Amino acid sequence: MKKYDVTALGELLIDFTENGTSGQGNPVYEANPGGAPCNVLSMLARAGRKTAFIGKVGRDVFGKRLKAALEEVGIDTSRLLMDETVRTTLAFVQTLPGGDRDFSFYRNPGADMMLREDEIPEELLKDTRIFHFGTLSMTHEGVRRATRRAVRAAKEGGALISFDPNLRPPLWESLEEAREQTAYGLSQCDILKISDNEIQWFTGEEDFDAGVRRLRDAYGIPLVLLSLGKDGSRAYYKDLRVEAAPFLQETTIETTGAGDTFGGSCLHFVLKYGLDGFDEGKLKEMLTFANGAASIVTTRKGALRVMPETREVERLIKSFA
User: Fold this and answer.
1) In the chain, where do the E strands start and end?
2) What is the pLDDT of residues 271-296, one digit of tens each?
3) Strand pairing category for 4-9 and 27-34
4) DSSP state of 275
């Protein structure tokens, strides 16, 4: 038995999301704790899983609040480091008509970029069942080396590798560099969570099935989880292709964290059944639950601190039956 179910590495930051206007007509921003890897861990912690985070924030007011937020939701912060000189990364999120989002990052540099290779806790990584990462810890050379060392240590310990590209074009010198680092993640993972626009960007295929086929042929990924926003989701596993409908709600206010909620929910089912234990029914169960959890998060501001409990997701699914 390993101590941790899922350990993640990457960015932990403040998402400033619009929350109305002031009396003078200026936009008011709410400081929500965020960062895709920790959103994933938060959903897993809510489902009763033991989680840990590896990363770095600044020793400033935002870094201290982020550490407290992780502890509040039950994520192990023993390997969350605080940089004495570089500030915590900030992101301003604008919701566009139709529900898409535009991100403006204050990260030149940001503390999450400063994680070093010699700061990777290899013993912790060898004591986890799943290791999860994305590409925001691959944008710069130092943290890129740290990420690759973490992947190696997790693999040596027998962990499954979970990867979410989580493409954010403004953070890359070029999209070609983003493509190279995404290809590394694809080459390492056992579980891939990818969005509709990301798979079209990476493969050049407009048809999602064709895009997934290309990825699986090139990288041999056992389980591909495709999030399709308002169109639901799909899972590709062995010779199975399973899809599940979304749970669309009139009370949706923003989509921040929905994909992370979906991904974390799916990892919960990988832990439940094992990567070799899926059949069509279990894949459908996983996608339905993950879609329900993601739907609930779209009705709330932020994500990390407001993940739904399992019973809440089950009630939502039942209400749509």
Assistant:
1) 4-9, 13-21, 27-34, 51-58, 75-83, 90-95, 101-106, 128-134, 160-164, 191-195, 223-227, 233-237, 240-244
2) 999 999 999 999 999 999 999 999 99
3) unpaired
4) T
Name 113's Cβ contacts closer than 8 Å, sequence gap at least 6: 86, 89, 107, 139, 140, 142, 143
3-class SS of residue 220: coil
> Six-digit token pair at 249?
């709600």
List, as own/partner pairs, every contact residues 245-248 make where C-beta atoms lie below 8 angstroms and the sequence separation is at least 24, other chains included: 245/291, 246/291, 246/295, 247/291, 247/292, 247/295, 247/316, 247/317, 247/320, 248/295
- What's the predicted TM-score (pTM) here? 0.96
Is 37 in contact with 62 (CB distance < 8 Å)? no
Q: What residue has token string 């060392």? A: 149
Length of the chain measured in residues: 321
Tokens of 311: 């019973």
Candidates 265, 313, 264; CA nearest to 7 is 264
Question: Rounded to an integer, what distance in angstroms lies between the CA atom of residue 237 and that of residue 260?
Answer: 20
